[in-house]
Design a protein that fits this description.
single chain; 252 residues; alpha/beta; two-stranded parallel sheet; 10 helices; 12 strands; 33% helix; Extradiol_dOase_DODA
């Protein structure tokens, strides 16, 4: 394939997204994963000391949450990995990368069960190396970029704000700290200010409030690296539960 497969960052939201159906749910259902033959997914819900490849034969899912309605634990989705994809990603990352059988966590199946309900696109999950700086994650994304020329898309799944103690379960408008953080982040992505993005914890307004722990933002840096740091196209913008930003982006 001569063109580059896209890179996406998707805000996957609360685990019960598929049951409550906020506006981002309809967006994901209408989103098409076109122009790719396979997909690498990086979820905010899998960290390991070094990068690992998770493969699944389909159907078995990880319900890595608790306290939600029972129908959420009955959801099935036939997403599956292919040997060809696993071998190619292993070759790209070099010797020593570990592969393991691991059901897809909800950072994978929650959005992808809406985007590709039949599970037609082969995929694998790649863990996020814990403790790596934004700059190191960015460089890791750059290592994946070559695969885009082979029709392998890269999807990072997280959330651009993620403060669970500040959610408004009865709904409501976002607080100023949340919208100010998003305005800053989007402006820096559009202007290509790589150094500011990598130092967001110091420079961004309300960074610690938006991300008391930054596990849900870290996939973004891998997406930016894989995309070459160019400006994204914003595909969707909405808020859920008050302060949970559901923005999603694409780089071509």
């Amino acid at each position: 394939m001569s063109h580059l497969a896209p890179v996406w960052f998707i805000s996957h939201g609360s685990p019960d997204l598929v049951l409550r159906r906020p506006s981002a749910c309809a967006f994901l259902e209408g989103m098409h994963l076109e122009g790719i033959r396979a997909l690498i997914v990086l979820s905010a819900h899998w960290y390991s000391r070094e990068p690992q490849i998770g493969i699944s034969s389909g159907q078995a899912l990880m319900y890595d949450f608790y306290g939600f309605p029972e129908p959420l634990y009955q959801i099935r989705w036939p997403g599956h990995s292919s040997r060809e994809l696993v071998e190619r990603v292993c070759a790209q990352l070099g010797e020593g990368v570990e592969t393991l059988i691991r059901p897809f966590d909800h950072g994978v199946w929650s959005p992808l069960s809406l985007m590709d309900p039949e599970g037609t696109i082969p995929l694998l999950q790649l863990s996020l190396p814990e403790g790596w700086s934004p700059a190191a994650l960015w460089a890791f994304g750059e290592r994946l970029a070559q695969l885009r020329g082979e029709g392998i898309g890269i999807l990072a799944s997280g959330s651009l704000t993620h403060n669970l103690s500040a959610l408004k379960w009865r709904g409501g408008e976002p607080d100023p700290w949340a919208s100010h953080f998003i305005d800053w982040l989007e402006e820096k992505m559009q202007s290509g200010d790589h150094s500011a993005l990598q130092d967001y914890r110091t420079l961004a307004p309300h960074a610690a409030m938006a991300h008391p722990v930054d596990d849900h933002l870290r996939p973004l840096f891998i997406a930016l690296g894989a995309a070459g740091g160019g400006a994204p196209t914003r595909l969707h913008a909405s808020w859920d539960l008050g302060n949970l930003y559901m923005g999603s982006y694409r780089w071509d």
